Amino acid sequence: MLNYSTSVVILAAGKGTRMHSNIPKALHLLAGKPMIQYVINTAKELNVKNIYLVYGHQGEILKKILKDEKLNWILQADQLGTGHAIQQVAPFLNDHEDILILYGDVPLISTDTLRRLQLEKIDKGIALLTMYLEEPFGYGRIIRKNGEIVGIIEQKNATKEQLEIKEINTGILLIGGRDLKRWLNAIINHQAEKKSEYYITDIIALASKQNCPIVAVHPYESIEARGVNNHFELAQLERFYQIKQAKNLLLSGVTLYDITRFDMRGRLEYGCDVIIDINVIIEGNVVIGNRVKIGIGCFIKNSIISDDSIIYSYSVIEDSYLGPRCRVGPFAHLRPNSKLEENSQVGNFVEIKNSYVGEGSKVGHLSYVGDAKIGENVNIGAGTVTCNYDGVKKHQTIIGDDVFIGSGTYLVAPVRVSSGVTIAAGTTILRDIPSIGLVYNEKKQIIHNNWNRKKKNKESEV
Ligand code: UD1
Ligand code: CA
Fold this sequence. Notes:
This protein is an alpha/beta fold and about 450 residues long. The protein has a domain of about 220 residues: Spore Coat Polysaccharide Biosynthesis Protein SpsA, Chain A (Alpha-Beta Complex), CATH 3.90.550. About 15% of the residues lie in helices and about 30% in strands. The strands form 7 sheets. Strands 15, 17, 19, 20, 22, 23, 25, 26, 28, 29, 31, 32, 35 and 38 form a 14-stranded parallel β-sheet that branches. An 11-stranded parallel β-sheet has the order 14-16-18-21-24-27-30-33-36-39-41, covered by helices on one side. A hairpin with a 2-residue loop joins β8 and β9. Its EC number is 2.7.7.23, 2.3.1.157. Homotrimer.
């Protein structure tokens, strides 16, 4: 826990011009979650006194998305730079508290690193988070004299020699409220792209001139302090983050066939000896049991998959439950609220929605099962459809145990089929089948022997 007399300022008013987007930069998604949400969660974990969020550009969208967060919203109507942004918060800050400055576009900063800032900060000093980058392009560079930090120079204002400096400003710093306010009053504006801008980074030179002790602290991992200014940097950060998550899974026993082709946009709970093939995406909260195998290109969202189940390639599973030893796919789609009991099977090109499939039952090929309850040991033939929608309302199909449904059957809901019934291929079921037996529609097969298919003549062919 950071000192309780610490408040956090999160900067998120910038236009994000380099994103070329109508969405505020801080709301762009990293592993499925808005970047700003990571920063807010970290700030909350620190248990600080107040969290101030500086907003401006498209602030209304930001407010809507973050409506459940306890934040002090500070408007920066004109985005005149990071220094100007903090000037907007200054009147609310206490002289005797420490202020931690975070950025809406530096999402992966960790609580451990921020605690380190606090430990290292000297009384009446500044703890500045810096790091060394082989490719420092775009970041402010740390200027040192005799080893001491004396200032920060922005990329666009740096000389050729300064651009060679590999120590960069992450933007994150911890400073006393009184000092911050004093130096904020003294920063001057820079003319940039036809408007004046005030840089928070300028307080470092002012502090240094007044012999304020400035300590540099480095993040535990460089990924924590990476800023996102454009889609390329966002894509890079996404991959760094995904590889980090993949590494954690691998180190705790999950097999991933390729760490660069795995995406987790949420949380995964897993058992022992789980195998995940390439291009699998996990979203929301997913639980997978022991010895589960997930094939190439599957998308699994908010679902539970029990022990020994196998999901074959290119299947989509959303808000569903699979009991043990189920087999799904390839190319199957389990839509929300589907429940497959133990040892059931859903095969190629089958869509299941809001349905229950009993133990040992099989829906093998090319079928649609919606709003249905299927008993145990049922076999549903290829191309069977539950006609659940009459154009106005959805209706239920109920099928008992040990039912055999031949291929190409239409079950027009609402309809009930009793246990043990056999339905012949190509039957349309319009009414309930209350007792055991064979059901089929009377149809005639007619053959016209004197019939010739029309043929295209050569000239009319295009
Ligand atoms: C800033 C730092 C740079 C540092 C880098 C780290 C300054 C002048 N430069 O540069 O030294 O290396 O971050 O990532 O501080 N913002 C506002 N209001 C504004 C302008 C920006 O709230 O008027 C917010 C943005 O929404 C963003 C953050 O401040 O969250 C940083 O702004 P950005 O324009 O991205 O600064 P950088 O060029 O990355
Ligand atoms: Ca930035």
